[in-house]
Structure formats: C-alpha cells, structure tokens
Amino acid sequence: MTTQADHGPAIELVGLTKRFGRTLAVDHLSLQVARGSTFGLIGPNGAGKSTTIRMLMGVLSPTAGEARVLGMDVRAEPVRLKQRVGYVPEMHHVYRWMRVEEVIGFCRSLYASWNDRTCREMLDLFALDPRKKVKHLSKGTLAKLSLLLAVSHDPELLVLDEPMVGLDPIAREEFLEGVLRTLCDRGQTVLFSTNTLDDVQRLADTVGILHDGRLLVHRNIEELLGTTKRIRATLGDGGRPGRVPAGTVWQRVEGREWLVTVGDFSAEKVEQIRAEGGVEHVEVIDLGLEDLFKDFIKGQRAGS
Amino acid sequence: MKWLIWKEYRLNRLILIVGAVLLVAPHAVALVLALRGVGPVTEGGLSRLQMNLLLSAIWSLVLSQLTLALLGGNAIAGERADRSAEFLAYLPVARARILAAKIVLALVTVALIWIPNLLILLRIFARLPEVWAEFYAAFWIFFGTVAITGLAFFCIGWLLSSVLESPTFSICGGLVTPYLVMLGLALLGWWSGYVEEAFGPWYWGTYRGTCLVLALGCFAAGTWYYLRRVEP
C-alpha cells in the first residue's frame, strides 16, 4: 500500500533555521527535492551546507522550522528514516579500531535492507582490504569505505556531504560514473553538496545555491544555465554604465567594459543595456555553472 | 544487539583490563604472601591463606568501585570524545538500544567482579567461628556501603557523560561527588553537635541513603537527557 508520503517530495524543508549563539547558520530555508532527482547543493565555505544536511539527517536540532525526508518528520522517526537514507558525512568518524570487515558487519547488523551483493561490488570497485584496520586507511580510502556503507543498504535517498574530498582523480571518476551515475539512473534520489562545480554540472538535474544560510537559487540546472547570461557592454569614451535590467545578479565596470550577469535572460534585457547612453557594443556570453555560481555569490557580497 | 555489546566491549577494553587487574591483583598478592608465610595471625581455625583471601576479596570489592566510575564516566562521553558518536548517530539504531548495550556491559562487569569475591567470602564465612559473628554482620553493612558508593560513582559519571564531551571530567565528577556527600554529612554532624557520632551508624545510614537517591536520580536524568538529545 502506498501512502501520500510515498509520493511527496523526497526532501521538504520549511523555514528551517539554525542559530549557533549569535551566528545565523541557516536562515529560514525552504526547499523541496523531488523523488528520483539529483540535487546539487553548492555554496561557499560557511554557507550552511553541512549544517542543513546535519539537520536533514536528524543529528542537529533546528532552532526553528521543519524537515521532512521521504515523508517522515526527521525528529519524530529518526530510526525508520535512517533505514531508508544513506549518508556520507563531510568528516568520516568510522570506528578507528575496527577492521573494514568489522565495520561492515556492524552496519550490516543494523540495516534491514543490507545488500551483500552491492557491498561486495563496492569492495571490489574501491579495492578495499576487509582485513585492514580503519586507523590504517588513508583519507581517500576512508572516504571510499564511508561511501560503501552509505550505499550498501540500497537507500531510497542518498545524502552526500562533500563526498569526493580526499578521493584521488581515478577513484573520484569511478565513484561519479560508477556509483553515483548508477544510483541516479536507478531513480534513487541523491542530494550532494560539493565545491567541485564540474561534478554538479555533470550529475545534478537540480541545483541549489546557498549563501549565508539562505537559498539564492533553486532551479533545474539546464534551465538555470539557459536563462542566466552575462552581457558584456563596451562603453564609449566617457560613457558610464546606466540602469541595470531587473533580475541582475551581478555587475562590474572595469575601464570601458561593463559586465552584467542577468537571470531570466531575454532579448529585451540586451536591448535595455544597448539603449543606455554610451554603450557602443553589446555581446551575450553563455556561462558555465562555475562562473554563474561566482557571479551569484559576488553579487550577494556586493549587495550586503 | 550482539554487535552493539561487542562495540561497547571494544570501546571499554582498556577499562575492562584495569577492572580485571583490580579484581585479580589483590588475590595474587594474597596468594604470594600466604605462600611466603606472611599474613595476619590466624584465629579460630582459619588458615593464613583464608585470612589473606578474606582481606583480598574485600580489597577487590572496594577497588571495583573504580572500575564502575570509569565505565560510567566513559559510557557516552568516551564516544563523543573520539567522535565515533557521530558515526553511530547516522546509523539506524535507537538511543534506547545504545544505552541498553552500555548497561549490559556494566552489569556483566560488576557480576564478574563481585560474584567471585562474594563466593570467596561466603566460603570463608562458612568456616568462621562464633567469635567472628560481629564481623560477619558488619561485613554486609560494609558491602552495602561499597556497592552503593560504586553505584553512585557509575550513575553520577553516567549523568555527566550524557551531558559532557569529556570522559575525564565525567569520571572525576563521578568519583568526587560521593566523597563530597561523605564530607558534607561529616560537617553536618559536626555542626549539629553529633561530633562524637560523626562516623557512627546514623552517618553511614544517611550516607548510603543519600548516595542511593543520588545514584538513581542521576541515572534517570542521564538516561532521559541522552534519549531526548538530538545531537550525538
């Protein structure tokens, strides 16, 4: 029997807020992540990504607001929720004195849906030695073990907080294409935070940009890239930049060059800039996710 | 549950080794002394070995309090200090089960220390002559005091452990508090004019009662706090 909770969004945050003393780490964050989607959460250091994820996983109490994951209130049903969610934290605190096989045995005993086949495949993929003690693993190998533990119970939702940190380029590629791609293709919901924007552009179908605990953008990645453009206007001698169009994300004037990054790009916005006195030439530039991200953050910083 | 208990055993292995040493060492010393003919003068049909074992079993019971203090103070804070509590927090295991595994380990440890010592004592007591009747009665009151103090060490450490991140502070807090109760009662007796009876029956009776209430209260409060706390 399926319930309404089985069809709703995989993640639903409503007004989620977290304060640490006077510091506002997450500021009334509201967000929905659809089931089966791959959501990339990006933001500069200290933006509140890990805090949000920790609240989402029920290991940090929010100051205000609600978090529902797979239709469940994370505070009301933490054990049932964790059975269905795989999580890779930013820091891997696996028991250092255990052997790899002991960690696996320990986790296996706690998950009802543990899949030995997936676990063996991951062991082979990452070439992990089951007899090795965790304290003897390198940072990258520990990250691989963490990933193995997060996916071996076939979770409906996989939450990854900076999962690629410490992985060498080959392991990273194997993980991205071999594991994450398989999970995405299987229809499992994936939420991952990262500073590597290439990964987001490759894998995510939706992206969220977090800054100072607030969600600046939450859009389909193709749509975002398609509608956010940079307009480069060349100013004539003595020309000064005029009024920026609505939806301007960021602007900069350097010499005769006036750069304006606009959201919801349209030909009218180009015309508006062209119509400004002193503009000699206008050019529209497509942005990659990295430039777009930088412009959003710089725009926020300039405005604050 | 088996894996959780195993995890507890591994996390507390050093403490359990200390506990085993504190269990065995007094008896080993007693045996060596008896073999060398050293020990209290025997009285009323007890051999020197039996006399030494009587004393070593009492010592072993007293020292078991330290093991309990270490187990209580390290119970939750130990995992916070090495950050493995974070790992456990991401796994689908109820807090009540985590606590149950810790309690099982403490109970098994206490049983392993107390049962052999009590068996030794009971065997020796069975041979005690009439002249020792007063000692026999006093022993059980003494054992009650030792057991309740051990329980207080464990439970106060348990409460501090559930609140703090440092096992050292939790253990020290657990160890110090019953002695503060002891001191407080002595001062109370002194101030209230019962100085001559400062360490009389009322004193130990009040001490045991206070420690028992304190222990049960701390255990309940520590358990409640850990079960309600969201953070690891």
Describe the structure.
The complex is a heterodimer of chains A (304) and B (232). Chain A has 304 residues and is of the alpha/beta class. Chain A folds into two domains: 4-220, Rossmann fold (3-Layer(aba) Sandwich), CATH 3.40.50.300; 229-286. Chain A has eleven helices and 14 strands. Chain A has helices spanning 4-7, 49-56, 78-84, 100-108, 116-125, 139-151, 169-185, 197-203, 221-227, 267-274, 289-303; strands spanning 11-20, 23-33, 38-42, 64-69, 72-73, 85-88, 157-161, 189-193, 206-211, 214-220, 229-235, 248-254, 257-262, 279-286. In chain A, the strands form three sheets. In chain A, strands 6-7-8-3-9-10 form a six-stranded mixed sheet, with helices on both faces. Chain A has a four-stranded antiparallel sheet with strand order 2-1-4-5, covered by helices on one side. In chain A, a hairpin with a 2-residue loop joins strand 9 (206-211) and strand 10. Chain B has one domain. Chain B starts with a helix and ends with a helix. The chains are: A alpha/beta (304), B mainly alpha (232). The interface between A and B is medium-sized, with 27 and 19 residues.
Distance between the termini of chain B: 19 Å
The helix/strand class of chain A is alpha/beta
Low-pLDDT stretches of chain B: none
The CATH topology of the largest domain in chain A comes to Rossmann fold
Give the averaged pLDDT of chain B, no decimals.
88
Measured by residues with Cβ under 8 Å of the partner chain's Cβ, the largest interface is:
A-B, 27 and 19 residues
First-residue to last-residue Cα separation of chain A = 50 Å
Instruction: Specify the CATH homologous superfamily of the largest domain in chain A.
Output: P-loop containing nucleotide triphosphate hydrolases
